[in-house]
């Protein structure tokens, strides 16, 4: 069991799921009959990446609360790593969303609720990184960052529910309380890609935490030699 | 939109995703390896200095 959740194993498992999801999306799931046509195939990675980005910001939110309760810097590190990865995934969502938007709607960008709130999420978490870079003292930086991460997270559920509460936008609602609205083969392809992206996020979080730990160790050793 | 036109957009989207994720994977793997090597070298240096201080104290 331990071997299955080790960092290298998680990368392999994520890779297998992502390749399987991609193959199923192109070979098993049918071409969408709506106006989106073949460009709908972008959905099989675009939506899982979007969900994964929001999950990363959700973990950062939980880590921020945990830090404020315990003042343990390990939570601050987890928050930082999750925000960085969340932004990486958000960047991919924005780029692939723009490509899909051009194909499906004929425009690269539209100021509609889902896209606008997602862009706001990106700006908020970029501000989180800027805030961290301007505060020198470690505990104070972690406290400010935690408070900011909690405030920034308010926009995440707004993004998720934007298309559900404001259905007049261009962005479709794929999974709602009434079901997925997808054919079985499409849903299977989507869920496998979703699993792959989630495993990839977990693997990357673990690796980035290892990087942060190693950076701390290097700083400690340099202090020891310098002192 | 024809399948050929749609396929161009799909190919572009997947190329961006795979390029960014694979690049990030290799960059982070390289960072881990570099930092591990730095830690090893620094630990060796600390041990060398401690041994040197021990010898100096012994004399």
Describe this structure in words.
The complex is a heterodimer of chains A (227) and B (59). Chain A has 227 residues and is an all-alpha fold. Chain A has one domain (41-167, 181-226). Chain A is built from seven helices and no strands. In chain A, helix 2 (43-70) packs across helix 7 (184-226) and helix 4 runs antiparallel to helix 5. The longest helix of chain A has 43 residues, at 184-226. Chain A starts with 6 loop residues before the first helix and ends with a helix. Chain B has 59 residues and is mainly alpha-helical. Helix content of chain B is 95%, strand content 0%. Chain B has one helix spanning 3-58. The mean pLDDT of chain B is 88. The A-B interface holds A 11, 22, 31, 37-39, 41-42, 45-46, 49, 88, 91-92, 95-96, 99-100, 102-103, 200, 204, 207-208, 210-211, 214-215, 217-218, 221-222, 224-225 and B 1-3, 5-7, 9-10, 12-14, 16-17, 20-21, 24-25, 28-29, 31-32, 35-36, 38-39, 42-43, 45-46, 49.
Order of helices and strands of chain A: HHHHHHH
How many helices of chain B in DSSP terms?
A: 1
Described by strand count, sense and barrel closure, the largest sheet of chain B is:
none
Quaternary organisation: heterodimer
Number of strands of chain A: 0
Q: Please report which band the strand proportion of chain B falls in: under 5%, 5-15%, 15-25%, 25-35%, 35-45% or over 45%.
A: under 5%
| Tertiary shape of chain B | rod-shaped
Biggest interface, CB < 8 A: A-B, 34 and 30 residues
* Mean pLDDT value of chain A: 88
**Which structural class matches the secondary elements of chain B?**
mainly alpha
Helix/strand class of chain A:
mainly alpha
- State the end-to-end distance of chain A: 43 Å
Mean of all residue-level pLDDT scores of chain B? 88
Overall geometry of chain A comes to globular
Counting DSSP H or I runs of 4 or more residues, the number of helices of chain A is 7
**How many domains make up the 3D coordinates of chain A?**
1
């Amino acid at each position: 069991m331990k071997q299955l959740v080790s960092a290298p194993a998680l990368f392999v498992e994520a890779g297998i799921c992502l390749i399987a999801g991609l193959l199923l999306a192109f070979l098993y799931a049918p071409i969408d009959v709506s106006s989106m046509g073949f460009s709908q195939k972008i959905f099989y990675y675009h939506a899982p990446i979007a969900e994964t980005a929001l999950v990363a910001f959700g973990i950062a939110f939980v880590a921020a609360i945990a830090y404020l309760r315990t003042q343990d810097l390990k939570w601050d590190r987890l928050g930082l790593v999750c925000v960085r990865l969340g932004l990486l995934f958000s960047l991919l969502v924005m780029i692939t969303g723009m490509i899909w938007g051009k194909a499906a709607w004929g425009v690269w960008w539209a100021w509609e609720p889902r896209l606008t709130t997602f862009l706001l999420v990106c700006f908020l978490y970029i501000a989180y990184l800027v805030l961290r870079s301007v505060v020198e003292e470690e505990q104070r930086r972690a406290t400010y960052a935690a408070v900011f991460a909690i405030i920034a997270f308010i926009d995440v559920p707004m993004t998720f529910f934007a298309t559900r509460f404001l259905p007049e936008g261009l962005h479709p609602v794929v999974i709602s309380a009434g079901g997925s609205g997808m054919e079985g083969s499409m849903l299977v392809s989507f869920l496998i890609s979703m699993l792959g992206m989630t495993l990839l996020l977990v693997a990357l979080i673990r690796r980035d935490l290892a990087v942060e730990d190693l950076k701390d160790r290097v700083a400690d050793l340099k202090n020891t030699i310098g002192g | 939109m024809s399948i050929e036109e749609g396929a161009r957009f799909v190919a572009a989207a997947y190329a961006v995703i795979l390029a960014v994720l694979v690049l990030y994977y290799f960059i982070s793997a390289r960072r881990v390896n570099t930092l591990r090597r730095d830690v090893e070298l620094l630990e060796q240096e600390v041990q060398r200095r401690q041994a040197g201080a021990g010898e100096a104290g012994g004399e």
